[in-house]
Structure formats: C-alpha cells, structure tokens
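Can't paste images in this forum, so I'm doing it all in text. The chain is below; anyone willing to post the predicted structure tokens underneath?
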Amino acid sequence: MIWAVAAFLLLGVFFGITGTIGVLRFPDVFTRLHAAAKCSTTSIFSILLACMLFKGWDPMSWRIMVIALFFLITSPVSAHIIGRSAWMRGLMPWGRKQQT
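Text version of the structure:
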C-alpha cells in the first residue's frame, strides 16, 4: 500500500512541476491556462488520492473525497471562464506566422 501512496505522490509532484514549467514557458494566455488547469487538476487529484490511500477509509477520507470532487469541478470551470474572458477581450491565440 505504501508503494501506491508513493507512486501517487510522485505523480502529483510530476504534474505540478510540469504545469509550472508550462505556465512559465508557453507563449500566450490560452496555452498557459491549459497547462495550469490540466496539470493542477491532475496533480491535486493524485496527491489527494495518495492521502486517502494512506489514511484508509475513515471519516477523513470522505472529507478528502469531497475536496477532490470540489477541485475537480471548479478548476476546469474557472479555466474556462478565464479563457472566455481573454477571448472576449480580443486576445488572439499564439500561432506561427503564415508565409505568403
């Protein structure tokens, strides 16, 4: 069981670092938002799953599950709202220049 906990913790750390690098390296708000939303959701979900496995099935696990469900719902919705706001303000997605 401890191996599964360690694997989920490492997976969460990997996605957290990958998302941070994506936010720092990507060129525009839409690609940065994609990296932040996908990687943070996966990272937090993996870490909370590791906490649930470590703690076992008790009342704390139900609280962790509610937190994970809340984060699973709110993170993509907030990313969509931010992306839609950027689009409505006229920010254009990054693209390679077309050759004429």
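Residues 59-88 form the longest helix (30 residues). The chain has one domain: 2-88.
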